[in-house]
Structures are given as C-alpha cells and as structure tokens.
Amino acid sequence: xxxxxxxxxxxxxxxxxxxxxxxxxxxxxxxxxxxxxxxxxxxxxxxxxxxxxxxxxxxxxxxxxxxxxxxxxxxxxxxxxxxxxxxxxxxxxxxxxxxxxxxxxxxxxxxxxxxxxxxxxxxxxxxxxxxxxxxxxxxxxxxxxxxxxxxxxxxxxxxxxxxxxxxxxxxxxxxxxxxxxxxxxxxxxx
Length: 190
Ligand code: AMP
Description:
Rossmann fold; five-stranded parallel beta sheet; single chain; 190 residues; alpha/beta; binds adenosine monophosphate
C-alpha cells in the first residue's frame, strides 16, 4: 500500500491535486472536508454537529474527526492505498492515524506539503468562494480564522512527519500540471 498525506494551508490546491493523483496511482482519496460537507448537505447527525465549526472556520473536534476518518478507511478495505487530504490537522490526529494504520501493518509513506504564501491563498479562496458556495470561502474574517487554526494547530504536524523523515515540501505556486509532476516525483520515490 502507498499512503500519502497531502498537506498544506487552505486553498493550497490539495483537492485539485488529489483528484488527479488518485487516478494516476489508483489510490482512494479521502478529504475530511468533503466528507463533512456531504454530511452537512444530507443533514446527518455528524453534519449537524460539524456545521457551526466549519461555517466559522474552526476545526471540528479531534474525536469526531478521527472516528469519521477511521470509518472512511474501513469502507475501503481493498484499497491500494490512500491520499489523505485535510487530515491529519492536529498532532493528536497524526498520532491516532499512525496507531490506526499500525494495527493494519500499514504506515504513512510520506507527507507531501504544498507551500504557498498566505496572501496568495486568501485571494484564491475568495475567488473559489464565488463558485464553491462555501460559507467559509466567502468571508475574509472566516478565511483568516482558518489560517489562524492552521498556524496554531496544524502547521506543527509538519514537524511530526519531519521527525520520521517523511516530510516533502513542494512549491505550490505554478500550473496544476507542473505541480502534479513535482508531487509525482516524490510519490515515485516512496
Ligand atoms: P477543507 O475542505 O479541508 O478546507 O476543510 C473544511 C473545514 O472542515 C475545515 O475548516 C474544518 O472546519 C473541517 N475539517 C476538515 N478536516 C478537518 C480535520 N482533519 N480536523 C478538523 N476539522 C476538519
């Protein structure tokens, strides 16, 4: 199995790249943000619980998110590997993911991070908000809060993988195709 964490701040292009890479490498793409939005749309119990956190740009509590992620992995028992997009977002999520995979004799092969300046990202998210309809993409103060969550809780997850020699940083500014090539070079080496 090849298990990749696609990492980066909001708007870095994780979802766009995961869409291409999942077909190229025959991996299952799990975006925790997409799973939350699906649950919100369908007004499930999980969706009702997660909605106010997401709409305001706050992280959903770890326990809820981790349980949801585990269920998504279990649904795909015959997968060739996973692209985790938007997860883990805290150190405790990273540790839980490691022990969950270890129980299956699996591991994360690498974290690939898309590195993009915050000011570029705010512009990208506001543009995306015009078409995505996402409440958390349309209001600059909510976007800034998402970056605050990223900077205070998520950015350190980089160190977690760095300590395991699994961190690979990629310049996330450029054409979609060029960035896919950079990421593919890393995946091919894992
Ligand atoms: P995304 O689509 O990855 O930008 O995620 C949208 C929102 O979903 C985030 O701002 C959080 O509110 C929530 N979310 C997604 N993934 C996680 C996670 N791993 N931990 C906590 N909250 C998450």
